[in-house]
Amino acid sequence: MNGMLDRVGEISELFTWLGLLTGVLVLVLALVVRLFEGSWLTATATVAEIDGDLQLTWTAEDGEVYRRFLDSDERLAAGDVHEVVVHYRRGRPLHTHLDKRTHASRVLVLLGVILMAVGILGAVVQLAAVVVEG
């Protein structure tokens, strides 16, 4: 029984170190990606159907009116609404998103949190193995 608990403790220690170290690295990478994304400004855009396509029209902070058509994925996200909130970068108002953060940064944060959870779970299992072993 002690041999099995030793193995469980060793394996959980491996998961602890790998989970926590890689989780921290991925979260730092997510922070760097978010810093490179910069700040996004928001505007309310009207959605209009033109020749079967949906077009966004919004006024940026510089007072200019900008227009662009929605992609197929964005059409599904927009649904049947007449107004949506768009996020654009300062100096590049045509580079808009319907989400405040890019998919890359959200995936990195989620992956980092999952890896950290694996590391914490490994630490709990390791501690439980030590307590049971006595």
Automatic annotation (TrEMBL):
Q: Does the keyword Transmembrane helix apply?
A: yes
Record field: transmembrane:
14-36, 107-132
Enumerate the UniProt keywords alphabetically. Answer: Membrane, Transmembrane, Transmembrane helix
Q: Which domain of life is it from?
A: Bacteria
State what protein this is by name: DUF3592 domain-containing protein
Source organism per entry reads Labedella endophytica
